[in-house]
Amino acid sequence: MLFLISNFLSIRWDFIRTRFRDIYRYCSYAVQMVCSYVLWPLAVVMGVNVADCRKVAEMIGTKTFLNEFVAYRQLSQLIGNREIMERHVTDNGTWYWRGDDVILTSSNGNNTVLTNGVITVK
Questions:
Q1: Distance (Å, whole) CA 66 – CA 5
Q2: SS3 of residue 3 by DSSP
Q3: 97 contacts 117 by C-beta, under 8 angstroms
Q4: If 88 and its partner were Cys, which of 8, 68, 93, 117 is the partner (CB 3.0–4.6 Å)?
Q5: What CA–CA distance (Å, rounded) separates 21 from 2?
């Protein structure tokens, strides 16, 4: 009997933990989306290129609501993606957008995905 109760509680705990994780991911994405529109004018006033204002506004929201280290990690990913893209384009590679991601195409048929895109240099 105790075995059945412990298994039931374990299953319920996994279900609850999974639901909270899904809710957290959804809320985190929703907060970033709202911040990207609400803080967009602040990014423009800061002097960011208009094409990058939404991403910068998301990072400002992440810094405000979560932690600046998380925002800096996102910024470093965007800068690293830009450096990879610049090297690829220098070698006459082609690229295209798919949503927020940049797809780098090469002549041998291998594609590289730069998740969350790039940020430009000003």
A1: 38
A2: helix
A3: yes
A4: 93
A5: 28
pTM above 0.90, yes or no: no
From first to last of its 122 residues, the chain has per-residue pLDDT tens of 555 455 554 556 566 666 666 665 655 567 777 878 888 899 999 998 888 888 899 889 888 888 888 888 988 999 999 999 898 888 877 888 888 888 888 877 788 888 888 888 76
Kindly state the DSSP code that residue 114 receives in the 8-state scheme: E
DSSP 50-97: GGGHHHHHHHHHHHHHT-HHHHHHHHHHHHHHHHHHHHHHHTT-EEEE
Q: Which residues pair with 113 in a beta bridge?
A: 103
- Could you tell me the two tokens for 2? 């105790």
Residue that has been written with the tokens 């929703």 in this structure: 30
